[in-house]
From TrEMBL:
Pfam families: Aldedh. Belongs to the aldehyde dehydrogenase family. The keyword Ribonucleoprotein does not apply. InterPro entries: Ald_DH/histidinol_DH, Ald_DH_C, Ald_DH_CS_CYS, Ald_DH_CS_GLU, Ald_DH_N, Aldehyde_DH_dom. This is 5-carboxymethyl-2-hydroxymuconic-semialdehyde dehydrogenase. GO terms for molecular function: oxidoreductase activity, acting on the aldehyde or oxo group of donors, NAD or NADP as acceptor. Keywords: Oxidoreductase. Residues 28-478 form the Aldehyde dehydrogenase domain. Signal peptide: none annotated. The keyword Oxidoreductase applies. The active site is at E256.
Amino acid sequence: MEASPVPNLPEVDTRHWIGGERVGSPATFVDRSPLDGVPLAEISQGGAAEIDAAVSAAQQAFPAWAATSRKERAELLHAIADGVEARLEELAQLETADNGALIRSHRRGVIPRVAHNFRFFADWLLDELDHPDFETRGHRNHVSWDPAGVCALITPWNAPLMLATWKIAPALAAGNTVVLKPAEWTPLTASLFADITAEAGLPPGVFNVVQGLGHEAGAALVAHPGVRRISFTGSVPTARGIAAAAAANLTPLSLELGGKSPLIVFEDADLDLAADLAVEQYDNAGQVCLAGTRLLVHANVVGEFQKRLLDKASRLKQGDPRDPETDIGPQIHPDHFARVDGFVRRAVDGGARVLLGGGPNTDLGGLFYRPTLLTDVAPDAEIVTEEVFGPVLTLQTFGSETEAVALANGTKFGLAAVIVTSDEERAARVSGKLVAGTVWVNCFFVRDLRAPFGGSRQSGIGREGGTWSFDFYCDLKNTVTAP
Ligand code: NAD
């Protein structure tokens, strides 16, 4: 295949990374940029054989890696973070070309967070992990964190390297070895990241990447009996298949899934802040699991809120995500674009009223979908109950706090919620009633890696972050010693 016509992209070896070596497959697939559909690279398309080789390599590397001291592992994780920081611009360019998210976000937030993922879990391993021993009738209880073995990590396309390293870093810190299967729509940064781990001095086989399709490489990985943990971030339907595969081997699993989060604007809210927070839900062209896509607004303030929101949203600049001035880029893929548009078309056919956008951006063409706001939607309408994962918000009103909580919780998901109010007691009361892994009060997307992160109901199983990540990636052991 010819070199990519997208300028400034680093060279990436897109074969698998198994046992510290590049390994190809007879089959390949073409990775295209969402910016303009140009082919970026030809990617090795792994299947059961490549997964088997990668799991074997990870199994062989496991005893020596598990036996390294915490200090050694922490130093290597910091060296990986150094490598990420040294190649920040390359990673940012590559990720933007591959998934269409803003270069400005990649430079300022997302790729620095990739490095931070490693530094955070390295430091946690050294400073925070251990509990003090405790006594039972003079017997000492000592809890130890034994690495579990080979971890299978499966990740989505909306924040590819950030979400992968959110799993890779704690898995490696805990002394496990890893096989990563990145999303097939965004394979590039995982391949470049493999080079960074090698340059940092990570021993062969400790970290492996198998590229490929979900129903081939992904399915083979989660069904592999050599795998001791499965950590998956992605959609609910895929999670169901993975949970069934994990059941056969009783492999422990962590699932970070979709959402349909409410953003609740109370009568006493700062409406300017509320409108700013609502506009933020269009970030990453709406392809954010946490996005508060259901705007629930007190009927007394809905007119003013709507006016301010439309005013702010109309100033969003849609266009090439490589331009630092751009606010909203394209959707990831033609299939996803059609899915988003299908949701909007069916909602409008069903009586929803378009307050903003409502379709593709025909000025730009390609995969650009206009930021969209729909109202006159029934609580049980598909557009209100299903995750769209595009720049599409719905607006509903409520008349009381009780009604707001009922609407907010009236979903099969439970990932996040945003409350906008000037009443602290109300914020605490409502937060206590919401079914959500994260509740933001008068803010959005502020994340501290020490906090538990995950979802309730169909938004997932388990929590990641701080101790919770180590809980998952370790076999905890209690040693009881007689006096
Ligand atoms: P997806 O489920 O289609 O794919 C995710 C990954 O699973 C990909 O790597 C894919 O190749 C793999 N896969 C697909 N079929 C598989 C199978 N049968 N066996 C094993 N692996 C398989 O999800 P997506 O479209 O890439 O991502 C979007 C979804 O991810 C949304 O629902 C979004 O809300 C969710 N998400 C959740 C979080 C979170 O932290 N909760 C974060 C980001 C995205």
